[in-house]
Amino acid sequence: MDCFRIGLFLRPHGVRGEVKILPLTDNLRRFSKLSDAYIEQKDNDYRAVKVTGAKIAGETSVIVKIEGIDSMDDAEKLRDKYLCVDRAHAVKLTGDAYFVKDLIGCSVVSTDGTELGTMIDVYETNANDVYVVKGSRMLSAPALKRLLHTVDIENKRIVFDADVLEEVGLFED
Length: 173
Prior knowledge:
By secondary structure, this protein is mainly β. It has helices at 72-76, 100-103, 162-168; strands at 3-13, 18-23, 36-42, 45-56, 62-66, 82-86, 107-110, 115-123, 130-134, 138-142, 148-152, 157-160, 170-172. The strands form 2 sheets. The chain has a 7-stranded mixed sheet. The protein has a 6-stranded antiparallel beta barrel with strand order 1-2-5-4-3-6.
């Protein structure tokens, strides 16, 4: 199953089984329309659940109610697990936006033909996300539109503009 983590269960909220989660998505409003979801048990092991309610609790958290989770003790069992959706229920992306999950594992090269390595992570920062590429040297580069020459998710290949990379890339020796 191809699932996306959209939230990390933090702790119970109240005594009726609601759970506070840390959203792992840019769009908090997506939770208000969410019904079909999964709880990640272990890597690639998911339990289907119904989300029966959700409310935004500030800028950095959401309170959700899961069908069958009716007490504080039930909610506590979800702590540190992930709330997920399958690809069919993922938020539809526009234009040149990509799921981090799809970027991880892509081979990365520059327009001058240099093999840079494999995308291993994307860090969120206040200004820009940061791409982390592991090759013969570690590379960190801000996720700028002008850096991305080509993104081919289907063939797991990303091409960085060599001139922009020279300007913004940070290589670790």
